[in-house]
Specification:
This protein is 51% helix and 18% strand. It is of the alpha/beta class. The protein folds into three domains: 212 residues, no CATH class; 95 residues, Translation factors (Elongation Factor Tu (Ef-tu), domain 3, Beta Barrel); 169 residues, Rossmann fold, CATH 3.40.50.80. It starts with a helix and ends with a strand. It is found in: Cell membrane.
């Protein structure tokens, strides 16, 4: 009857997946019709709107412990609930041990082993860029990463619970035999030598510990390329040894490992085939242009199409061909949906690894190189065309995400294809030299008649007076610092913006209409903006007046 534990876990997560599919379908229909939002607080939809605001507040809010950012509150609540349920379910069932090892394996260890094995295919499914969960729900893979990471930690916890009884049982049996610790150690050594599952379970456990440790932010920031390569190797090692271990000890749970293998193969081959098809089975030529502050502008003419704020993984065959790196797209595709000449623009900061190699090539006069595009992935979970007021906030190269949205919205505003009436665009840079990254883009946008509805604010944080805009005409709407501005294009401000005040000002300006907020920048910027949006959502749920009719917030991070 022990396999029932794995089956129960599998059925539980299958039920959750079905519920999520239904919710996503309802969400898609409501966004398409917009009936819910148009109804306001009155009518039969008022309660639904308030519940939706409360749910969004949980998705936007997160806690911070010193410099460590916890997951958003809704995923945190969900993973905490699942962990608590699995743990209690494991430990409230008795017995834990048998009278002796000759009567069979400890029930506690077997239960935990089955549960851990049942979680393996789920974690594999959630970790891949091309995965069945995204295919069924439409939720992008980066939003599933928190469940992938914490799922792996659940497996480690249950694996430890699985391991300890197999150590305690023979040792305790030796103590009961004659009370001697030497006899207890002999019993433990004897069962270790004579029982294959005792020793073949150690390699996958060690591999799992390493996988979780090496997936922490420090290793990812230290070298993204190193993280990816070792992660793939460690994962393959873990899965192979799991097959060996389960075949010996939990044969009926072997099928779960085969599901994990199938998911991994489907993901890898699916991604390869999708990449080749999207690139029309040929390499793309990427032009390179060095820019200030270690930035390289990459332009690729490609048949691949994308939506604003999406990202791609680029692979350069002439530079570390087995590695790929994610980059956010800073342009929009051709208006013609059948065009094969979409100009994909990316701004890449040369930190190390591939990104440094690209920048070095550009500085040394190499004007182009070959690449393969994997993607696009991610992007906005909701279209913001139906929101009358839009606020876009970015810091540094985080503008890659927001400038694509700006380009798309201005183009649609010009053609009357969107409900957006006003856009606040706030960009924080270290020095005025960073303006060169998108100066031509902003000048091109200023030729559109609808650009008068765009409030373009540039905050310069550099302390060098030569790089700071002098004060002459007015004060920034978002800062107490005096500013000078080009009346036709830019509003410059000195110092870091108070992003909380930016969101609150946008909330006042969008009273009674729909507001969308998108932020992409350092973690602390995203944290402040999203928590402020969560607080506003709670006020909307409470029915307070002088607030937007609805609020949508989206956070993108350029940090690994």
């Amino acid at each position: 009857m022990q396999p029932k534990w794995a089956l129960a876990v599998a059925m539980c997560f299958t039920a959750i997946l079905i519920v999520v599919i239904i919710i996503q379908a309802i969400k898609h229909v409501s966004l398409s019709s917009r009936r819910v939002m148009k109804s306001g607080w009155g009518g039969p939809y008022g309660c639904f709107v308030k519940m939706a605001a409360l749910a969004r507040a949980l998705h936007y809010h997160r806690f911070k412990i010193r410099s460590y950012f916890l997951p958003y509150s809704f995923p945190l609540i969900l993973v905490t609930f699942m962990f608590t349920w699995i743990t209690i379910w494991t430990f409230v069932t008795f017995p834990y041990y048998r009278p002796g090892m000759e009567y069979g394996s400890p029930p506690l260890g077997v239960r935990a082993g089955y549960i851990a094995t049942a979680l393996v295919p789920l974690v594999f499914a959630l970790g891949s860029r091309v995965n069945p969960v995204t295919f069924l729900t439409g939720i992008s893979h980066e939003r599933l990463q928190v469940y992938h990471q914490y799922g792996a930690r659940f497996i480690l916890f249950m694996s430890i619970v699985h391991t300890i009884p197999f150590i305690v049982a023979p040792y305790q049996q030796g103590l009961e035999y004659d009370g001697s610790r030497e006899t207890a150690r002999y019993f433990l050594q004897y069962y270790y030598d004579q029982t294959e599952q005792f020793w073949n379970g150690i390699p996958p456990l060690v591999a799992l510990v390493w996988i979780i440790i090496s997936s922490m932010g420090y290793f990812r920031r230290f070298s993204y390329e190193f993280f990816v390569i070792q992660h793939v190797i460690s994962t393959l090692f873990f899965l192979v040894w799991m097959l060996i271990h389960v075949q010996v000890s939990l044969l009926s749970a072997w099928y779960y490992c085969f599901v994990a293998v199938g998911t991994m193969i489907w993901s890898w081959f699916g991604r390869v085939l999708w990449t080749l098809w999207a690139n029309e089975f040929k390499l793309n030529r990427a032009t390179l242009e060095p820019l200030p502050e270690g930035i390289t502008r990459v332009r690729i003419v490609t048949p691949v199409r994308w939506t604003p704020a999406q990202s791609v993984y680029l692979r350069f065959p002439t530079m570390k061909c087995f590695q790929s790196h994610p980059f956010t797209i800073a342009s929009v595709p051709n208006v013609d949906v059948h065009s094969n000449t979409n100009v994909m623009q990316l701004l890449i900061r040369g930190k190390g690894g591939i990104t440094k190699d690209i920048h070095d090539k550009a500085k040394n006069g190499v004007s182009s190189t070959y690449c393969l595009i994997d993607g696009p992935y991610g992007g906005l979970s909701n279209p913001i065309d139906n929101y009358k007021h839009v606020t876009l906030i970015s810091g540094g190269t985080g503008i890659n995400a927001t400038v694509g949205i700006l380009l798309d919205l201005v183009r649609k505003m010009e053609k009357g294809e969107t409900l957006v009436e006003h856009i606040d665009f706030v960009w924080t840079i270290r020095s005025i030299g960073s303006m060169e990254w998108f100066n031509d883009t902003f000048k091109s946008l200023s030729t559109h008649s609808t650009f008068s509805n765009v409030n373009l604010v540039i905050h310069v944080t550099g302390s060098n007076p030569a790089e700071t805009v002098a004060v002459e005409k007015s004060e920034s709407r978002y800062s107490n610092e005096p500013v000078a501005y080009d009346e036709q294009l830019y509003n410059f401000a000195k110092g870091r913006p108070d992003v909380k005040d930016i969101v609150k000002e946008s909330t006042k300006a969008a009273q009674g209409v729909d507001l969308a907020v998108v932020v992409c920048g350092p973690s602390i910027m995203n944290f402040s903006v999203m928590n402020t949006c969560a607080a506003i959502e709670l006020k909307i749920a409470a029915g307070e007046s002088e607030l937007p009719r609805s609020l949508f917030a989206h956070s993108e991070s350029f940090e690994l």
